[in-house]
Amino acid sequence: MLDIIAAIIKGLGYLAALGGAGIVLARATLFPIGQLPGIGSVPAVRAAGALAMLCAVVTGGLFIARLGGPSDPAAIDAVLWSPLGAALALQLGGGIVLALMPGGRLAVIGGIGLLLSFGLVGHAATRGLSTSASVFAHVSAAAWWLGGLAVLFAGARAHPAPGYTALVDRFSRQAMWIVGVLVLAAVTTAALLLEWTFDPARIYDAGLAAKAGLTAVLLGLACLNRFVLLPRLGKAEWPRRWLVRAIMVEIAIFLGIFATTAWLTSFQSPHAGAHQGAHEGRAAPRGTGPIRITDAWAPASISGLGTGAGYLTISNAQNAPDRLVGVASPWAESVTLHRSQTVGAMTRMRAVAALDLPAGGQFVLAPGGYHLMFTGLYAPFVAGDTVPVILTFERAGRIEAILTIRPFGAAAAGHRH
Ligand code: HEM
């Protein structure tokens, strides 16, 4: 349930960020400096800013609650000093600027801040600067398109016919370049995330194909506006009415694309399958070294929150005690050791600095007790995927373990074997 709420908040966040920032950016390119369209764009930007703030606060709250509650300093730290924390700060700050100064020039900076937040978290952040930059370009162009449509929609009522025709003309000229950037950045981001492969049988890839299909319908409508309605605007009343209808359909398609994107980024992974093959050979229990790792797994993550738990059994074949002193993973900003403890009706989580392994003994990390805590996940944990972790032991040194992601319901059952 929590994951569905988080995905819905994500979708609303897209609407707020792209809608608010988009109107501000489109206003900046469509109107002479200092001149505001004088239509409903100011209240719309204000509302989008307020919604962006709300989404940032709720997402941060869910994140902290999941990590251990507001009284746990480790949880607050994990939010503040992770890419998610930075993204939420940009979303919150941008939202505040848009809500308080919706018509000013500062609004452009607030809008850009909102859009930058997309380059910091999500799948794009797993591949470094190039994917972050391409997703930022992609999202900014999409925002401009949506914002421009909103301005045209509002203007269809408020502007006199001649001025309005010039505005639509300016929009459609600029759109040719900006929508080109959107598509180019979309293809680049997809290619980088999928490592230049495309398999329609993979759910993530099929989701992208659905987005491409919806975008193609949008482009079809844009052509209708440009080549059929625009030349007739001002000459009769019907083209303007049809333009308003076409824009309404386009905005509805944007909502569909947001829903598809929120579902894709919350419940699907571009890595699913791709990494599995690569790690399959190494996923087997490692029995030869002084430390043996078995039953290494993680439940599919509650998406949108950027955290995950991991479990494993460590057997120490050395005839001396050892200590697990550090854990890291390329999939997360940080991995720490935690212990859940139930006192009365309250379950609390505490960070643990190290785990002691007796000579020849075993340490079990299992639900309800000790576990690995992943914070600032770069991609959600999707069932069937595998996640590598590096465990650092005082004596035995660094050991790699591969956690298999199990579906949420099956996770606990899987642990018992
Ligand atoms: C008007 C059309 C589109 C809109 C409004 C749109 C919107 C978005 C948004 C808001 C994100 C950010 C997701 C996040 O980081 O949380 C995103 C990411 C992305 N988009 Fe689009 N998009 C559009 C078209 C497309 C098309 C046609 C493709 C290519 C097939 C595409 C491919 C991608 C990819 C690969 C990502 C990264 C997803 C991830 O992190 O897993 N988009 N898009």
TrEMBL record:
Keywords: Membrane, Transmembrane, Transmembrane helix. Gene3D superfamilies: PCu(A)C copper chaperone. Residues 166-264 form the Copper resistance protein D domain. This is Copper chaperone PCu(A)C. The chain crosses the membrane at residues 12-33, 45-67, 79-99, 106-126, 132-154, 175-196, 208-230, 242-264. GO terms for cellular component: membrane. PANTHER family: BLR7088 PROTEIN (PTHR36302), COPPER CHAPERONE PCU(A)C (PTHR36302:SF1). It comes from the Bacteria. InterPro entries: Cu-R_CopD_dom (IPR008457), LpqE-like (IPR007410), Lxx211020-like (IPR058248), PCuAC_sf (IPR036182). It comes from Sphingomonas changnyeongensis.
